[in-house]
Amino acid sequence: MMKRFIFAGHAPAMLLCASAMLSPAQAAAPAAAPVAPAASAPPAACKGTIYMTFDTGSQSQAQLIADVLNKRHVKATFFLANEKTTRGDYSLDPSWAPYWKARVAEGHAFGTHTFDHVYWKKDLANGLIQVKPQFGKDGGKLASFTDQQFCEELRRVDTRFQELTGHKLDPFWRAPGGYTSPRTLAAGSACGYQHAGWAPAGYSGDELPSDKYPNATLLKKALANLRSGDIFIAHMGIWSRKDAWAPANLDALISGLQDKGFCFATLREHPAYAQKTGQP
Question: CB of 245 within 8 A of CB of 204?
Answer without folding.
Answer: yes
